[in-house]
Design goal:
single chain; mainly alpha; about 100 residues; about 40% helix; elongated
Amino acid sequence: MSNGPTDKPAVDAEALAGALRALGMLYGASQPLAEIIAGAKSEAEAIRMYIERERPHLLASYDLETLVKMVQEARDAKTDAKHGVEQFSPSDKPPAKRRS
């Protein structure tokens, strides 16, 4: 047995994805989250990398560290929007007209 470093990544990408999804920030990412945050040494660094690359428009209105805290709080709350708007797929047909 060795006491060397484990192969466990520094960031739990699945938990981070759940938090980003809960905040509506994961939809439409250009790459899988694990690829975007590869090389991050901490969760906060991973969140910064993701926001700067995939959601830079948010930085016009929000402080980066505030966004990092929001994502971390969503992760801590174990909030996930598994059945949210991201999964909505409109049908080809317009809604049926209501009878008057």
